[in-house]
């Protein structure tokens, strides 16, 4: 099962039976609006705080996944998830409603693939019949906590990114039709000494490159194995930095097979600076748009590399640079189960 | 592997090859001082902030476990861990130093057993040769974040608990001598509507009871199977509440085989109110004192039920009650490996 240093190859290849994706008003005006199961017209979603709206996003994504998978909530044995809010309370409170045994994760914007990797590990080990895993973020709740309340109208530099309001969840099963999780690479904490919290993409790029290169080495393949390698939320700046690093290391990767979720979700003209970010970003783009493309036969082999900046306002204030991480999960259209 | 609804039975029974436990000055004066590998004389541990001292606790616990297990850090494939600080930055920054691929967890004070359950799942699925899992807390860092800086000298009610300054880590291996992880039960989020953040034990007791009863039902055993069932940090009040719940449910459990880590770590006379708490509490008591008792042959079958209160200062301010959780892991002295 362990392959190389830090990669798991899943013999049983768990199936992503169904997914649920929920977005906010900014996402409804975005490039991928048609790939969402549910889009909300305003950021409050009828709740009395942004954090409670955040909780609801995750609840709804899980409910949509169960509904589309034809499962009642009693049939889901575990939920793995997390978010960026202090003590991941939106996810925990959503799981209070959802009722299944709950495994709380923190990987910042890498949470989507941290959860999918661990979820696939549990499925592979026959630790569940069905489980849900997902991640979410809410623009106004995250901005308030990490920077300033959006009501202040604070200015941002062009290196900054726009936190996605959205949640994506995947329902994993041992059997069934759908894309399968074939392997996962857990990333190391990489910190190149950057400390500007308005340039997360630049800080996270080396972590993405390290995880992709480790993944290819561990599996004994090159980048051309995949139809698409997609990073979580490097944004335009981080994406460019990562391409330069691949070039510097002599790792062949084609620009047309290497994309970033943070550059895909919004339309040109939406004021998102360097691109999108937030745990919800890769979760909604992968569990919505990209899996739809796989189901249409446009992609057969996908590597998702969710990137996370593991800082807090406090570590920044205490002069720490930004520790970053990236976890990679391969999702493939394969007919046959392995062993 | 899945047994019943929410329990994993580990066929390969991963071994706890070695552990590392580190404590602060209050723990050095406590009941279990002799069971620590390392005790610090002051809360700063030579660092310029309590959060940086907190990070160091976790680093040292992992280093001690590797040293005692005779492993170099390159041999450890994964680290699973978490803490209570916003965005679990002490654990993430420790993993920057330690260097192994890192899986960040958030389960509040249940993190120790969340990590041991997932770590054992990974070992059981042959996903690693060696991995580290642990949890930590720092009294002054946690008090500052959740309540008031300790320098304010704020008063506390007798229902409150004292956050442990300490870290405990376990080194898991597929082969070797030592206590073995035989099963794990993942808990649900339980919220009985209590909202007093100075009475966590009372809030967490129903979660502990739910997980213990689920564990016994899933494994088809009764409480007498274990020499000791130990909760994480219910404290005196939560412990009493949980005993009443067992009685009410008709679940037979003997008082002399049912203890709480939060009532074991300090001496009578230390001003800890209802007892100890914090992710470090169950981590140091189990990975220090209780495993030492197992190695001396005093205990053969141990069930650890780490309890967590998944609130934040913000959820409290927004009028939410306290969502709680408990994860249970059984550790047994068994000679033979299963299948």
Give the number of DSSP strands of chain A: 15
Q: Unreliable runs of chain A, pLDDT <50, ≥5 residues?
A: none
CATH topology of the largest domain in chain A: Peroxisomal Thiolase, Chain A, domain 1
Give the overall shape of chain A: globular
Overall radius of gyration of chain A: 18 Å
What is the largest interface, and how many residues per chain? A-B, 58 and 58 residues
Please report the first level of CATH classification, the CATH class of the largest domain in chain A.
Answer: Alpha Beta
Tally of helical segments of chain A: 9
CATH architecture of the largest domain in chain A: 3-Layer(aba) Sandwich
Give the count of structural domains of chain A: 2
Order of adjacent strands in the largest pleated sheet of chain A: 1-2-10-15-14-11-12
Helix-strand sequence of chain A: EEEHEHEHEHEHEEEHEHEEHEHE
Report what the structure shows.
The structure is a homodimer of 339-residue chains. By secondary structure, chain A is of the alpha/beta class. Chain A folds into 2 domains: 2-173, Stage V sporulation protein AD (Peroxisomal Thiolase, Chain A, domain 1), CATH 3.40.47.40; 180-332, 3-Layer(aba) Sandwich (Peroxisomal Thiolase, Chain A, domain 1). Chain A has 9 helices and 15 strands. Chain A has helices at residues 25-28, 50-69, 89-98, 111-124, 139-146, 200-219, 235-249, 279-295, 313-317; strands at 2-3, 7-9, 15-23, 38-39, 78-82, 102-104, 130-137, 162-163, 166-173, 180-185, 228-231, 258-260, 276-277, 301-309, 324-332. In chain A, the strands form 3 sheets. In chain A, strands 1-2-10-15-14-11-12 form a 7-stranded mixed β-sheet, with helices on both faces. In chain A, α6 crosses α7. The longest helix of chain A is centred in the N-terminal third of the chain and has 20 residues, at 50-69. Chains A, B: It holds the Pfam family SpoVAD. Chains A, B: This is Stage V sporulation protein AD. Chains A, B: One of its GO terms (molecular function) is acyltransferase activity.
């Amino acid at each position: 099962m362990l392959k190389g240093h830090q990669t798991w190859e899943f013999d049983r290849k768990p199936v992503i039976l169904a997914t649920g994706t929920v977005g906010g008003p900014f996402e409804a005006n975005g490039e991928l609006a048609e790939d969402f199961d549910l889009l909300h017209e305003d950021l409050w979603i009828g709740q009395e705080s942004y954090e409670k709206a955040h909780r609801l996003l995750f609840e709804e994504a899980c409910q949509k996944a169960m509904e589309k998978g034809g499962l009642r909530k009693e049939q889901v044995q575990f939920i793995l998830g997390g978010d960026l809010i202090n003590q991941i309370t939106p996810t925990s409170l959503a799981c209070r409603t959802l009722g299944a045994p709950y495994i709380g994760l923190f990987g910042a914007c890498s949470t989507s693939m941290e959860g999918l990797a661990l979820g696939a590990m549990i499925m592979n080990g026959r630790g569940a019949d069905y489980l849900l895993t997902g991640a979410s973020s809410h623009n106004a709740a995250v901005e308030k906590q990490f920077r300033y309340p959006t009501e202040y109208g604070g200015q941002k530099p062009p290196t900054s990114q726009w936190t996605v309001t959205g949640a994506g969840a995947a329902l994993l099963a041992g059997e069934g039709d759908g894309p399968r999780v074939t392997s996962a690479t857990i990333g190391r904490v990489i910190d190149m000494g950057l400390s500007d919290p308005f340039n997360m993409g630049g800080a996270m790029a080396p972590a993405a490159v390290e995880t992709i290169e480790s993944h290819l080495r561990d599996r004994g393949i090159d980048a051309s194995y995949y139809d698409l390698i997609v990073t979580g939320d490097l944004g335009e700046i981080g994406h460019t930095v990562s391409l330069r690093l691949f070039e510097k290391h002599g790792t062949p990767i084609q620009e047309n097979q290497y994309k970033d979720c943070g550059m895909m979700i919004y339309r040109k003209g939406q004021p998102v600076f360097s691109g999108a970010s937030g745990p919800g970003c890769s979760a909604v783009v992968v569990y919505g748009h990209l899996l739809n493309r796989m189901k249409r036969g446009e992609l057969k082999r996908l590597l998702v590399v969710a990137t996370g900046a593991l800082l807090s306002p406090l570590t920044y204030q205490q002069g720490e640079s930004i520790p970053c991480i990236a976890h990679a999960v391969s999702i493939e259209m394969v007919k046959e189960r392995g062993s």
